[in-house]
Amino acid sequence: MSGGQQWWQTAVVYQVYLRSLADANGDGTGDIAGLRDRLGYLSDLGADAIWIAPWYSSPLADGGYDVAEYCDVDPVFGDLDQADALIAQAHAVGIRVLLDIVPNHTSREHPWFLAAIKGDPAARARYLFRPGRGEDGDQPPNNWISHFGGPAWTRMSGPTGAPGDWYLHSFAPDQPDLDWSNPEVAADFEDVLRFWFERGVDGFRIDSAHGLIKTAGLPDLSDSPTRHGHPAWDQDGIHDIYRRWRSIADSFRPPRIYVGEAWVDDPGRLARYLRPDELHAVFASALIRVPFRAEALRARIQQTLDTAEMIGSPVTWSLSNHDTVRHVTRYARPQPATSENSAWYRRQRGTGPADLALGRIRARAATLLALALPGTTYLYQGEELGLEEVEDLPDQLRQDPTWRQSGHTDPGRDGCRVPLPWSGDGPTLGFSPPEATSPPWLPQPEHWIDCTAAAQASDSRSMLTLYRTAIWLRRDHLLDAGPVTWIDTESDVLAFRRGRICCYLNTGSEPIALPPGKLLLASETRAGSMLAPNTAAWLTAQS
Ligand code: NOJ
Q: Ligand 1 in contact with 416 (CB < 6 A)?
């Protein structure tokens, strides 16, 4: 904590996609024991907290975002003893632990859903089953589309085996949506929160936090919906849920926290989630959707800061996560002029070649930008190693449901989830132990042999060294540095000051002269007082 701020207002949070972090038991999938082995690495990196993707019992149809039992750990990841040991060990090295709760939907394998499809009325009432439209009920109950492509409804067989009702799934058919107007659903999730809080977790990231309540009657989506206008998202009733959740978090010592994944564009509506008796923070995708262009970055940063000020919330920054193309690859292709081209940051197939060396240079610069801003920064595992999106995974190995549901037009998110390279030149680059019985669940590119954590640790010019240095300097110089003040500079340059620290980013094609001041850190070696294209620097101002 610094200057009266709470830890979650300034933290560097490292996002752990457990399947791909480190595999201790050699089955090719990352696990809790593997994460425990890497806590020293995360502590050296300067992480204040980790956010762990769902580790609950799950058929892993959507990487664990399809939960079959919320109060247990999937055997592929470990068990409750491992979870307890991880929490204790993380706390011992000063790292807080955030879990990921998935309240919008369960797995199709959850006992509630299994009972529901056998006809148990109480279990059925936990989900959104509806009769179909049309004479034979063979049309979905409404026109909603699943996030992963295709209709948001799947039809089940009735008790006699004849086609029956449909159930709603905002994501894959493996993820039936819960009916949050059912008080039993609400009560069960409150027990889940307590279960994990009692085990010592410091908070939750809330998956699809704005989606739990649907408009009564599940009406058709009109032709031009806004996010608020969509009957499945951001409905007013959601806030009662978070008020109850907040009172649970506040009843623990120390109080626990919630960070919502809430895709709500309207600042006024977003602010409602952050009222003092609701969530602590929400994710802003601010930097993910912005091209590497000074003007676009500045505009989005200012807009994000304005929103945060208006709603009185801490700002959260991230460059990548487990759902988006890794930023090394985003920056490796021609950058659109503005952020308006919303398709640019998505996965692309068959687009032009990626200049990964350029992408990495820009990624280094963007890291200094993100870490210089006020607020919380979320790092996605592997970005500190400069990993790129793996775009050439063999199609038959792809596991993300998006691939299947898009009719194989969207390659899905597997490319940012490839197991990390830790050390050596063995077949798994240290991801699994040498005696492993199975290969990593997704194959690692051969050239990752050059970017293992071990290889980078002793290289003063590596991405890992840059991250470590920047995070530790941030702790010393930037946590209490105050708000952003923009510095006027030439176009293609973004510059701001916080307290005595100035951050310069040159996204243009010509070097620029830096003002006098002591260089704290640069993303590339600097030539004299010039800042090269695609680089950033932190300076201590003279006055
Ligand atoms: C958002 C998560 O980040 C994503 O990975 C998941 O597929 C969906 N929610 C559904 O749970």
A: no
Token readout for 59 is: 């058929």
Tokens of 381: 């595992």
100 lines ligand 1 (CB under 6 A): no
Distances 392 to 322, 407, 422, 442 between C-alpha atoms, Å? 17, 18, 21, 11
How many Å apart are CA 416 and CA 413, to the nearest integer? Answer: 6
Domains and CATH numbers, the chain: 7-106+181-215+226-457 (3.20.20.80), 111-168 (3.90.400.10), 483-541 (2.60.40.1180)
The structure's pTM equals 0.96
378 Cα–ligand 1 center, Å: 16
Q: Which of 393, 376, 383 has its CA nearest to residue 359?
A: 383
Q: What gap in Å lies between CA 335 and CA 328, rounded to an integer?
A: 12
**Residues with Cβ within 8 Å of residue 524, at least 6 apart in sequence:** 361, 364, 365, 532, 534, 535
How far is C-alpha 197 from the chain's CA centre?
A: 21
Site of tokens 């040498």: 434
For residue 101, the SS3 value is: strand
Contact 42, 31 (CB under 8 A): no
Omega of the bond leading into 254 within 30 degrees of 0 (cis): yes
Angle formed at CA 530 by CA 524 and CA 533, multiple of 5 degrees: 55
Q: Which helix (H) or strand (E) holds 271?
A: helix 267-273
User: Are 82 and 73 contacting, i.e. CB atoms less than 8 angstroms apart?
Assistant: yes
The sign of the dihedral angle between the CA atoms of 107, 112, 113, 115 is: positive
Determine which residue's CA is closest to atom 5 belonging to ligand 1.
323
* pLDDT averaged per 10 residues, the chain (length 543): 79 98 98 98 98 98 97 98 98 98 98 95 97 95 92 88 91 97 98 98 97 94 66 94 98 97 87 93 84 95 90 89 94 87 64 91 98 97 98 95 90 96 97 96 97 97 98 96 94 96 97 92 84 96 81
Give the bridge partners for 13, in sequence order.
49, 378
Q: Which of 98, 146, 204, 208 to mutate to test the pocket of ligand 1 (most atoms within 8 A of CB)?
A: 208
